[in-house]
Write a structure and sequence with these properties.
Distance between the termini: 55 Å
Number of domains: 2
Helix content: 10-25%
Order of helices and strands: EEEEEEEEEEEEEEEEEHHH
Largest sheet: 6 strands, mixed
Structural class: alpha/beta
Length: 195
């Protein structure tokens, strides 16, 4: 059974038509008949689970929202991005490229996550995002953990080689982007030597 449909109301952006969605049944906190945000196609928002796109949020391209995830406000999710689990993307946030936001992560503006790629031994993308504890979670290949766990894993796997230096520089950039300059300076006060 479908939980939502595309309405005839649409907006045109970036050469694409994005259609407003309407709930067909009640699920989670969504009531039957409730209007949601905009999607380009049904593949953007799963028909099962409690995932929802609301307000004026937009999901398009190959992006997918599923599980219990929510995309609200004026947020945009596009490219090959995935938002799932109990994740929330809201405000003016943009999640794009190959980024994945999941578990209990919340992205409320562009500063809450950082996608860096193609780096490291796998020459792939690494996603850093603010977690519910106001720390940073890292998704890199099959690794998922805190930024401290990520740095420890990098050291354990790569020692001090080129890949380790790239991963640690990416982690530094993520701390500066997500936690801010004051927190970044405090973290790096005790570093005795550069990478």
């Amino acid at each position: 059974m479908k939980k939502y449909e595309l309405t005839a109301e649409f907006i045109e952006k970036w050469g694409k038509k994005l259609f407003r969605i309407k709930a067909l049944i009640s699920f989670g906190s969504v009531e039957a008949g409730e209007l949601g945000g905009y999607v380009e196609k049904e593949d953007n928002l799963a028909q099962n689970g409690n995932a929802w796109v609301c307000d004026d949020a937009e999901v398009y391209g190959n992006a997918r929202v599923f599980g219990n995830a929510r995309v609200c406000g004026d947020a945009r999710v596009f490219g090959n991005a995935r938002v799932f689990g109990n994740a929330r993307v809201f405000g003016n946030a943009e999640v794009c490229g190959n980024a994945e936001v999941f578990d209990d992560a919340e992205v409320c503006d562009d500063a809450d996550y950082l996608l860096i790629g193609r780096i490291g031994s796998r020459f792939s993308f690494t996603t850093f995002f603010k977690n519910k504890d106001k720390g940073i979670t890292v998704s890199c290949g099959c690794f998922l953990g805190t930024i401290a766990e990520f740095r420890a894993k990098v050291t354990d796997t790569h020692g001090n080689n080129k890949h380790a230096k790239m991963y640690n520089l990416a982690a530094d950039m993520a701390e500066l982007q997500i936690l801010g300059e004051e927190h970044f300076d405090k973290l790096n006060t005790n570093k005795s030597e550069p990478f």
